[in-house]
Every structure is written in C-alpha cells, then in structure tokens.
Design a protein that fits this description.
By secondary structure, the protein is an all-alpha fold. It has 12 helices and no strands. Helix 7 crosses helix 9 and helix 11 runs antiparallel to helix 12. It is elongated.
Length: 367
Amino acid sequence: MSVMSQRTDPVFVSSLGKGDNLHQQVLAAFPLCRISEEDLIQNPGFCRLLATLCQHVDRTGLTQHLRRDREKAERELHAQRLCWLRVESLHRVLREMVQENRFSKASSALTVEDKFCSTLEQCLTVAQCVKQMDISSDSSEDHSGILGLTAERVLRLMPPEQELLEMKQRLSSELLQHLKKKAVSVLTYYQPEWENESEGLRSVKLSKLPELLDAEQKRAKSLTEKNRENEALLQRQTHAYLSELLKCMNILQRLVLDLRLKAQKELDRKKIEYFQAKCEIGLQKIRAEMLEVQLDTYTRDKITAHKKITEKLRAELKSSELDKQTLESKLTSFQIYGQDFEALAEEYSRLRQEIATKSWALKEFST
C-alpha cells in the first residue's frame, strides 16, 4: 500500500525528476530491462511505477532485504569454500608426503621416518574410507554401509594410540619442512639464480614468494586480457584484410577479363590473318597443280597431234616420192613427145616444190 500511495503521490514523483531527467533515472536504475526512452514517453504511468520501484530495488532487481540475504549467503559460502580448500590442500600435501617417501626409499629396513609415513598413510586411508561411506551421525535410519561395514568398524583399523601420538608430534614439523621444500622448488623455478644462495637469504626471499606469485598471477591475467584484446583485434584485422582482399580479387578479375577480351580480339585477328594466308597458299598450290595438270594435258595433246601430223606428212611425203618416181619414169619415157613433155615438166616442177615444202614442214614438226 505504501508503494501504491507513493506511486500516486505527485509530490513524490516530482522529487524524482521531470521529463527527460526522469526517463534517464529510470533507464539508469534498470539497465537489464530492454526498454527505451520512447517506451517511457509513450507509457507515462509505467514510467512513474518504475521510478517508484527504483527506490526499493537495486540495479539487478533485488530488494534491499533480499540483497543483504544474498550477500550473507555469499559470505558463508565463501567461508565454507575457504575451509574446504584448506582441508583439501592439507590432505593433498599429506598424500604427497607419503608418496614421496614411498618412492624415494629403496631399502626394506623400517626407519623412524618410514614408520611416521606408514602411520600417516594408514590414518589418511581410514579417514578417506569413512568419508566415502558417508554415514550421517544424526540420521535415524539404519545404514548397513558398504559390505556391512560401519564407521566404527573402519575406525578400528587406526594405528595404535602411541603411534598416533608420535605421528601427531612430528606432523607439524614434517609438514612445515615439506611445504618449505615445495616453496623452495617454486622459488627456484621462478628465480633459478637463487638456488645457490645461503639459507638465511633464501628464507628472506621465501617470505617474498607470495608477493612474487601474486605479481606473476596479475601479470598472467594482464597478459591473458591483452591476448584476448589482441585476438579480437586480430579477428577484426583479419576480417578487414579478407574484405580488402576480396575487393582486390574482384578488381583483378575484372582487369583480367578486360585484358583477356582485348588480347582475345588481337589473337582472333592474327588467327584470321594466319588462316587467310594459309588458305591463299592452299589456293595457290591448287592453282599450280591445276596448271600443271592442264600443261601436262596440253603437252600430251600437242605431242599426240604432232605425232599424227608427222605420220600424215610422212605418208604424204612417201606418196609424193612415189608420184615423183612415177613422173620421172614417165618423163623418161615421154621425152619423145615434144610439147606434152613441157606440160609434164611443169607438173614435175610443181611436185618437186610440193615435196620440198612438205619436207620442211616435216622437219619443223620433228624438231
């Protein structure tokens, strides 16, 4: 009721602010809410309700009482965790002491130190068994345990009281010596040059080991954070580089395509010229072959005609010689005929002239 009365009280609302100042206060008071200033302007009643609620809850939405309870529970949990870590660390250190003693001693003779470690190991084993049985002392139920065992029966396996007393008397000094040894090993790991220092100087430097480890832890966290920042920067730079590389590849692809088209045009022109020249050479060869065939045909025809004419002229020459012989015989036999002889002589002259002409023609065709 008080909340509602405050929500409706205009004096209370005016004390929170007006206009943009009120909107900014509400947005700052509830950073986890996905609301905008425009939503608050459109819903003034809801804005006043949020302004009233911000007086009773924190930035995460918890009330003051619930926040105090949570902080108390967190402190208790932190204390329990710290207690558990101390117990667990002590248990692991004791187990480590037992294991180191077991693996470092090769002889079978039982020494005082071996007796101490065996007693300690037996106590740790029994305690671990009791813990794993997980039997609650205030439970009213009847637990039979594992294989019928109970915590009381397991605790009977503890060493004798005298051995326990001797082990407890030496435990603090042995534990301190073991922790000092581990601290020295850690110190020499971080600062190898301190290994050969004196015992007093080493003890002084051991007192500064927590500060050294704390500084190393802070430096490791700083380096881790820096590595994360560098990784984020590297991712952004890689993305930018890949984007620029993609742009360059696109530009290069366009340039290659343009140059390829220009070069292809020139190449096509040269190919056309080459094929034209090749076709012209082929046509010339064809023409030469055709001329050669025509020339061979013409030569063969000419030789054939020449042979025919020669044979014809030889036949005519032979016929003319026969006529000449006939006429000579007639001339000899007709010399007594007077005027008839003159006509016969003229015929003879004509035949001689014809024979001479045909002999010249035969000679010309023969050559």
